[in-house]
Amino acid sequence: MASGEFTVRTYREEDRDQVIDLWVATGLFAPYNNPGEDIRRKVAFQPELFLVGLVGGRVAATCMAGYEGHRGWINYLGVHPEHQRRGYASRIMAEAEERLRALGCPKINLQVRETNRAAVDFYARLGFSDDRVLSLGKRLKDDPPWDGN
Predict the structure, then answer these.
(1) Is 26 exposed, middle or buried (0-12, 13-18, 19+ CB in 10 A)?
(2) What is the edge-to-edge ordering of all strands in the sheet holding 108-110?
(3) 3 — pLDDT class (breaks 50, 70, 90)
(4) What is the C-alpha separation between 108 and 55, in angstroms, rounded?
(5) pLDDT per position as a tens digit, 115-133
(6) Which one, of 121, 139, 140, lies nearest residue 130 by Cα?
């Protein structure tokens, strides 16, 4: 990947392939999630909260935030393996927090797999703590299988 200054901006359609490549490289999406569909849905709702971090004009980090009037949420926070341990996750997260705060968001929630200790430790350093809640989910729609496009 190219080197250069790290900048954060709102996602653009031309970022799509690089974003998906980053999510694949970092293991951010599960087999039952179609990354193209997740991007399409996010661009249709609060696209200003879908952030990319760039180094040398290439996508090096992503953060997908949301706010429904009660809580903010963070999804798809990741940094390409070639750019990890440089503070980029903290910087893109700070931008997401700033945008959520500007909307009046009082609290951010996120979910981390219990087995991902590195992510749990990262978020703890940013001030997040275990809310001692059980996360439940219900799939309303099955996405078509991801075919790499």
Answers:
(1) middle
(2) 6-10, 50-55, 58-67, 72-79, 108-110
(3) low
(4) 27
(5) 889 999 999 999 999 988 8
(6) 121
What is the Cα 61 distance to its own chain's centre?
8
- Return d(Cα 15, Cα 58) in angstroms, integer: 8
CA angle 90, 33, 72 (to 5 degrees): 40
Residue 6 and residue 32: Cα distance in Å, rounded?
Answer: 31
Q: Are 47 and 11 in contact (CB under 8 A)?
A: yes
Against a cut of 0.85, is the pTM above it? Answer: yes
Best CA proximity match to 81, nearest among 55, 61, 95? 61
Phi, psi of 58, rounded to the nearest 5 degrees: -115, 150
DSSP 15-39: GHHHHHHHHHHHT-S-TTS-HHHHH
Q: What is the DSSP letter of 110?
A: E
41: helix, coil or strand?
helix
Sign of CA dihedral 86, 55, 96, 146: negative
Residue 65 token pair:
């935030």
